[in-house]
Design goal:
By secondary structure, the protein is α/β, with parallel strands linked by helices. The protein is about 30% helix and about 20% strand. The longest helix has 10 residues, at about 80-85.
Length: about 130
C-alpha cells in the first residue's frame, strides 16, 4: 500500500503508463469525454473532488511541459483562470470547441467533480531529464 501521493489505483496505474508527449485532460464534470482515451472518473458529488485538488495532485506526480485551456475560461471562471495562470505561466489558450477537438488525442482523461464552467486543461507530459 502506498503511503503518499495518488492513492487511487486506477489513476496511479494510468499515470505510470504515460510517456513524453502524451496528453492528459483534467476536466470538470460537464466536459464531453471522447471515445478512445483511458478515463479515470473521480467525480463523486458536485464540486468533489475539485479541479484544483486534482490538478495539484497530478502536478505533484507528473512532469508537464505544456498546458492548454479554453479562452472562455478567463471570463466565465476567473478562479480557475488564476489557478492555471499560476501553475502555467505559458498557458496556451484556444476556443473551447478546439479544446474539445484536442481532447480526442489525449492518452488519459481525469474527470473531476468540478461544477464551475471551463475548468478543463489539457496537459502535455514532459520528461524529468
Amino acid at each position: 500500500m502506498r503511503r503518499a501521493g495518488i492513492l487511487n489505483r486506477h489513476l496511479a496505474g494510468a499515470l505510470a503508463e504515460l510517456g513524453h508527449g502524451h496528453g492528459v485532460l483534467v476536466c470538470d464534470a460537464g466536459m464531453p469525454i471522447p471515445q478512445g482515451p483511458r478515463v479515470v472518473d473521480l467525480a463523486f458529488r458536485a464540486g468533489v473532488p475539485s479541479f484544483a485538488e486534482v490538478l495539484d495532485g497530478l502536478l505533484a506526480e507528473l512532469v508537464v511541459e505544456g498546458a492548454t485551456a479554453a479562452t472562455e475560461l478567463r471570463e466565465a471562471n476567473p478562479a480557475a483562470a488564476e489557478l492555471l495562470d499560476d501553475r502555467f505561466p505559458d498557458l496556451a489558450l484556444v476556443p473551447h470547441e478546439r479544446l474539445k477537438e484536442l481532447s480526442w488525442g489525449a492518452h488519459l482523461v481525469v474527470r473531476t467533480g468540478e461544477a464551475r464552467p471551463y475548468a478543463n486543461v489539457l496537459l502535455r507530459c514532459g520528461v524529468f531529464f
